[in-house]
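Our consortium's second objective concerns turning raw sequence data into structural hypotheses that experimental partners can test. To show how far this objective has progressed, the report includes one record in full. It was chosen at random from the queue rather than selected for favorable results. The single chain below, 215 residues long, was entered without modification.
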Amino acid sequence: MKKLIIILILLIPFLNTNAQGIGKLAPEKPPVEFPDNSVGVDIVFSEGGIGFGGFYRHSLSRKFTFFTDISISESKDDQEVVRIDPFTLQPFTLFKLNRVFVVPLNFGLQYRLFTDEIYDNLRPYINFGVGPTLVVTTPNNKEFFKAFGDAQSKYALGGYIGFGANFGIDKSNLIGLNVRYYFIRLFDEGVEGLFGKYRKNLDGIFLAINIGFMY
């Protein structure tokens, strides 16, 4: 998963071949005025698998944007080992006691980079957010959805730093990509994903594809 994220990061400048016009190569023209508000969904990829979320953004100026987002995804231990049952041919994880899910709610700021040096159809930015994270555990020995009937939850302090870009000059639709490093800290003994192994830190790298509309 980390290799995939690194490859996607390196491909960001080439996702729109006509996007860049740096320095003197950029023609003199007025900047595109985008709507102040946007809302949409995130498709999130991490080492724990695929997750989903949503976001709201409000432009404070041409460079600064306030945002809030929420997502849900599974958090897996680095030491998890997946095997195939020779009788059922179904995958299983050795010594796994619980599935662990993280539901971070973040509030933060986004800062647009190279505002006057790059065409508006490629809008790179850096961002950071902080907020509470709901951590949910479900028993691994039960079917995925039925296990939520025995779910247990606790709260953690969370946040992330990241960078990404929005693409295109359509003033109604929003398409973007954001790479984030999440910091998630529990203040008790942590969560037991594998038997006898508790985790207080649920940090990780996440790749989010942003799809929404502006108004």
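The partners drew two points from this record. Residues 13-25 have pLDDT under 50 and may be disordered. The longest strand covers residues 122-139. Both points have been shared with the crystallography group to help prioritize constructs.
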